[in-house]
């Protein structure tokens, strides 16, 4: 524990602080109009930081007396840097109360949290800061930008997207059909030999596809059965869809999807994926796109995702279009702070496997 001349005290969160902490966190999220702020409760907080097997969360708070003014959450995950097993910390829920803003409280709290993490057994710290905090992370906390994740979209039913934009009766269907016809040549052709399934939960065969795919990257989080079931099956609130492609009776591709509001319609957001080849992934995308009305209870307008640039080939060969960063209202900027590894290898975007599953908001 440490203090400053401003009568601020910095420490790790204790059980007695939890109710006040979650109340402040929820208020900050609502005031900032954050995605899913209305669903952030104790169950969501506990899942994020304590429900994962062998959880080692680092949660720091700033107090004035007994009043919590700020918070800084860092769950710890197993991963690999340059192919070697390491521990990663991700900076997630951070913020300060309205009364504490503009007084340097967040910067002091970030300094304290960063020092504590550097003294732990964590080898790498990463985060996806918003526009308000990215400057602080880079200038004051020593983070470096690895890359801005690539954002891809693939139309499923353009008329569904246009229905919220075009008021003239029936015009959205006419325009949608026209755009879908123009886009059709970019969609891969169906190939023989594949079968597809919508799964109830993460199976050992699906985990195996993720583990095999993950071996292609030097730097990544460990996607084992513990991580995948925690991340996608045990999360409170909302529904997650699992799709698989098989060939010769073996799983060859996996899609993990949630349905979110986007561009005035529903989008199939790809949280995570894995495939033994770009072709297997493309065939699964084509199948889910073609049968979206069967799999989803709501009309889906498009696929959407943000991933490491190392995944560009998978998405472009599947018909996806990359959205320019300047047109993306919530570009995900991946920042990293190297603690104990080769700097050049760690900061090379081509070595990373990041998907939306690493972004804690979804």
Identify the notable features of this structure and list them briefly:
seven-stranded mixed β-sheet, 12 helices, 2 domains, 29% helix, Aminopeptidase, globular, 362 residues, alpha+beta, 19 strands
How would you characterize the overall build of this protein?
With 362 residues, the chain is of the alpha+beta class. It folds into 2 domains: 2-147, Gcn5-related N-acetyltransferase (GNAT) (Aminopeptidase, 3-Layer(aba) Sandwich); 150-331, 3-Layer(aba) Sandwich (Aminopeptidase). Helices cover 29% and strands 31% of the residues. The chain has 12 helices and 19 strands. It has helices at residues 18-31, 42-49, 105-118, 134-139, 158-162, 171-183, 204-214, 225-232, 278-290, 292-295, 312-316, 343-346; strands at 2-3, 9-12, 58-64, 67-74, 76-81, 84-91, 94-96, 124-127, 144-148, 150-155, 194-199, 219-221, 241-247, 250-262, 265-275, 300-307, 321-323, 333-338, 352-353. The strands form 3 sheets. The protein has a 7-stranded mixed β-sheet. A hairpin with a 2-residue loop joins strand 13 and strand 14. The longest helix is centred in the first third of the chain and has 14 residues, at 18-31. The two termini are 33 Å apart. 38% of the residues are buried.
Summarize the topology:
Elements: E1 2-3, E2 9-12, H1 18-31, H2 42-49, E3 58-64, E4 67-74, E5 76-81, E6 84-91, E7 94-96, H3 105-118, E8 124-127, H4 134-139, E9 144-148, E10 150-155, H5 158-162, H6 171-183, E11 194-199, H7 204-214, E12 219-221, H8 225-232, E13 241-247, E14 250-262, E15 265-275, H9 278-290, H10 292-295, E16 300-307, H11 312-316, E17 321-323, E18 333-338, H12 343-346, E19 352-353
Parallel strand pairs: 6-8, 12-19, 15-16
Antiparallel strand pairs: 1-2, 2-3, 3-4, 4-7, 5-6, 5-12, 8-18, 9-18, 10-16, 10-17, 11-13, 13-14, 14-15
């Amino acid at each position: 524990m440490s203090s400053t001349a401003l009568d601020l005290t910095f420490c790790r969160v204790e059980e007695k602080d939890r109710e006040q902490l979650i109340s402040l966190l929820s208020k900050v999220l609502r005031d900032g109009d954050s995605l899913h702020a209305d669903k952030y409760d104790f169950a969501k907080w506990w899942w994020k930081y304590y429900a994962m097997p062998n959880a080692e969360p680092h949660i720091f708070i700033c107090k004035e007396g007994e009043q919590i003014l700020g918070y800084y959450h860092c769950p710890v995950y197993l991963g690999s840097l340059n192919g070697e097993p390491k521990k990663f910390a991700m900076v997630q829920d951070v913020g300060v109360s309205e009364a504490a803003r503009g007084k340097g409280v967040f910067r002091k709290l970030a300094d304290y949290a960063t020092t504590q993490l550097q003294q732990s057994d964590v080898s790498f710290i990463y985060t996806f800061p918003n526009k308000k905090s990215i400057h602080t992370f880079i200038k004051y906390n020593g983070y470096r930008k690895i890359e801005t994740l690539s954002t891809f979209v693939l139309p499923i039913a353009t008329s569904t997207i246009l229905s919220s934009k075009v008021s003239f009766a029936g015009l959205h269907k006419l325009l949608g059909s026209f755009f879908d016809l123009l886009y059709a040549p970019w969609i891969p052709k169906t190939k023989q030999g594949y079968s597809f399934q919508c799964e109830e939960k993460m199976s050992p065969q699906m985990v195996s596809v993720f583990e095999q795919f993950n071996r292609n990257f030097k730097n990544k989080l460990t996607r084992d059965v513990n991580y995948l079931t925690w991340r996608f099956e045990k999360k409170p609130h909302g529904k997650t869809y699992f799709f698989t492609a098989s060939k010769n009776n073996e799983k060859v591709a996996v899609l993990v999807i949630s349905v979110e509001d986007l561009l005035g319609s529903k989008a199939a957001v790809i949280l995570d994926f894995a495939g033994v080849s770009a072709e297997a992934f493309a065939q699964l995308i084509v199948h889910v796109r073609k049968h979206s009305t069967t799999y989803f209870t709501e009309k889906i307008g498009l696929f959407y995702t943000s991933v490491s640039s190392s995944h560009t080939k998978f998405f472009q060969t599947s018909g996806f279009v990359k959205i320019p960063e300047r047109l993306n209202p919530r570009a995900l900027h991946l920042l990293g702070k190297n603690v104990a590894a080769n700097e050049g290898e760690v900061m090379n975007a081509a070595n990373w496997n990041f998907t939306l599953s690493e972004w804690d908001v979804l």
